[in-house]
C-alpha cells in the first residue's frame, strides 16, 4: 500500500495558480503574471518563476518536490491460542493486519485474539506471506481441513478475503504437511514428507525373534511443488533417500525433512533433514548416539529428480528446522541454520557448486558467548544481516519451555549479538516462532511472554537501531508467533 502526503503550502499554491489562470486572458496581460527567462535556457515558461531550490515555492504555483512519497506495507501479526496447556498453540491461529506506520507506533494497540481472523487449521497454521505483504498463504495443519491450500488478500484489521481456488494437497503429502514458500517471486510452494520402515532379515524363522537381523531403515521421501498463483499441483515425486552403507549399517536414517530452498541458479532444491538412529542389535530406538555431520537432500529442479545427500564437516545435527524457514539465499549461496548441534547451532553455507562450504564456520556459541545455542527461527535482510531467535543453556525455564532471545547477526562478518533493547521474560517462548517481516533493511518481530501483553519491535539491521512499536494485547496461555 502507498500513502501520499500533500504539503498544505503546495495545496495553496495549486489553488492560487488555478485562480490566476481563470482570471488572466491570453489577449490581456494587465494584472497577469509576467514570466521571465530566469534560468537562461532561452525559453520563458512557468518553471522560470520557480526558485532554484525546490521546496521553497509558496505562491507561484511551483511544485513542492521535497515531500517524498511514504511507502507503507501491511504487517500481519499471527497469534496462537492456547489449547490444553499454556503456549501449546493448539487452540488455533488468528491473524490481524496493520500498516507499517501503525506497527511502528507504540500508542497503537491491537487485539488479535479478540478481533483477529481465524485461519483455517486444526492446530497452529503454517503461514506464509507474499514479499509485499499483500497476500497470506496457508495450508491447514491436521484435522478435517488438513492439507487444504488457501490464499487471502490482506485488507487490514481482521479482513482477509479469500482469493483463488482452494486445493487439497493431502492426497500427496498427508493432512499435516510440512511446506514452505520458495523465494521465486511468490510463484511456488513446496511440501514434503518422509516415511520410514525398518528392514529386518528374519533368517527364515519369523516365529523366533532372536534370529532377526536388522539390515537398514528405508526412508521414502515425497516432494510436491504447488503453483501459488493458479492453485494447482505442479509436480510430485517420491524417492528412496539412502545414507552411506556404513551409516545405515550403524542404524542411522533420515526421519524428518522440511524447509525446501531453491539455489541461486534455480536448478536445485535443497531440503533440510533430521537423522535418527536405532540400535542395530535390537532395532530399538537409540537416543544416545554420535551426532553426524549436518545433511541436506539435493534434488534437480523443477523435475524433482536425482536425489543426493550432502554432508557438512563443520556443523553437526539437523537442518530441517521446525516451523520457520531455515535456509535463505544470499549473495549466490544458501545459508542454513542447524539445530541440536553438540557444539551449539551453526549457520552453514552451501555454495553454487551445491556442496557445503566447510571453510565457513559460523558458530553461535562462540559468536554470542553462550553454551548450547539453539536457533529457533531466523531471517536475513538483503544486506546479509539477520535477526535470529534462539535459546541457550542459560535460558530460564518458563511456563511453556525455555526462554527465548533475539540476536542481530552478520553473515559476512560471522558476528552475533543479543538485541538488548527488546525486553526478555522467562515466559518469552519462541520455539513455535514462524514469521519475520523484512522491509528493506528493517525486520519486524513480535515480543510478548506467554499470556502477557507485549509489542512489535522493528530492528534496523544496518544501524542496529531498535524501535518499539504497537502494543500486542494477549490472552491467558496464548502467545504470538511472528509477523508476515
TrEMBL record:
It comes from the Bacteria. Residues 1-25 form the signal peptide. Residues 36-50 have a biased composition (Acidic residues). Residues 26-71 are annotated as: Disordered. Keywords: Signal. This is Uncharacterized protein. It comes from Flagellimonas yonaguniensis.
Amino acid at each position: 500500500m502507498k500513502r501520499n502526503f500533500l504539503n498544505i503550502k503546495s495545496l495553496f499554491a495549486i489553488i492560487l495558480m488555478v485562480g490566476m489562470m481563470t482570471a488572466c486572458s491570453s489577449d490581456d496581460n494587465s494584472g497577469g503574471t509576467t514570466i521571465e527567462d530566469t534560468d537562461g535556457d532561452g525559453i520563458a515558461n512557468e518553471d522560470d518563476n520557480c526558485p532554484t531550490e525546490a521546496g521553497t515555492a509558496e505562491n507561484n504555483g511551483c511544485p513542492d518536490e521535497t515531500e517524498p512519497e511514504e511507502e507503507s506495507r501491511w504487517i500481519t501479526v499471527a497469534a496462537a491460542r492456547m489449547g490444553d496447556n499454556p503456549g501449546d498453540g493448539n487452540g488455533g491461529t488468528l491473524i490481524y493486519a496493520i500498516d507499517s506506520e501503525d506497527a511502528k507506533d507504540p500508542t497503537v494497540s491491537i487485539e488479535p485474539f479478540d478481533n483477529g481472523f481465524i485461519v483455517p487449521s486444526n492446530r497452529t497454521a503454517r503461514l506464509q506471506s507474499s514479499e509485499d505483504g499483500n497476500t497470506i498463504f496457508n495450508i491447514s495443519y491436521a484435522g478435517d481441513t488438513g492439507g487444504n491450500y488457501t490464499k487471502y488478500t490482506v485488507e487490514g484489521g481482521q479482513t482477509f478475503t479469500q482469493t483463488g481456488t482452494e486445493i487439497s494437497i493431502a492426497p500427496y503429502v498427508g493432512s499435516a504437511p510440512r511446506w514452505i514458500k520458495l523465494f521465486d517471486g511468490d510463484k511456488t510452494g513446496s511440501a514434503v514428507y518422509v516415511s520410514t520402515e525398518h528392514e529386518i532379515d528374519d533368517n527364515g524363522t519369523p516365529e523366533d525373534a532372536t534370529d532377526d537381523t536388522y539390515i537398514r531403515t528405508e526412508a521414502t521421501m515425497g516432494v510436491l511443488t504447488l503453483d501459488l498463483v493458479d492453485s494447482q499441483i505442479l509436480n510430485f515425486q517420491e524417492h528412496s533417500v539412502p545414507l552411506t552403507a556404513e551409516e545405515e549399517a550403524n542404524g542411522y536414517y533420515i526421519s524428518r525433512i522440511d524447509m525446501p530452498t531453491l539455489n541461486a541458479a534455480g536448478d536445485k532444491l535443497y531440503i533440510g533433514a533430521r537423522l535418527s538412529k536405532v540400535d542395530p542389535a535390537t532395532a530399538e530406538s537409540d537416543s544416545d548416539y554420535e551426532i553426524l555431520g549436518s545433511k541436506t537432500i539435493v534434488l534437480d529442479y523443477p523435475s524433482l529428480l536425482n536425489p543426493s545427500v550432502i554432508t557438512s564437516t563443520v556443523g553437526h545435527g539437523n537442518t530441517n528446522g521446525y516451523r520457520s524457514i531455515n535456509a535463505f539465499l544470499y549473495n549466490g549461496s544458501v545459508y542454513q541454520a542447524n539445530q541440536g548441534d553438540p557444539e551449539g547451532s551453526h549457520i552453514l553455507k552451501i555454495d553454487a557448486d551445491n556442496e557445503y562450504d566447510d571453510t565457513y564456520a559460523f558458530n553461535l556459541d562462540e559468536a554470542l558467548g553462550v553454551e548450547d545455542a539453539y536457533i529457533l527461527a531466523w531471517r536475513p535482510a538483503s544486506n546479509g544481516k539477520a535477526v535470529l531467535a534462539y535459546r541457550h543453556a542459560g535460558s530460564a525455564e518458563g511456563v511453556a519451555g525455555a526462554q527465548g532471545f533475539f540476536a542481530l547477526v552478520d553473515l559476512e562478518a560471522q558476528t552475533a549479538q543479543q538485541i538488548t533493547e527488546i525486553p526478555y521474560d522467562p515466559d518469552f517462548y519462541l520455539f513455535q516462532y514462524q514469521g519475520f517481516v523484512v522491509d528493506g533493511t528493517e525486520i519486524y518481530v513480535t515480543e510478548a511472554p506467554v499470556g502477557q501483553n507485549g509489542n512489535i519491535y522493528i530492528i534496523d539491521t544496518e544501524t542496529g537501531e531498535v524501535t518499539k512499536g504497537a502494543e500486542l494485547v494477549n490472552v491467558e496461555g496464548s502467545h504470538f508467533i511472528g509477523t508476515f
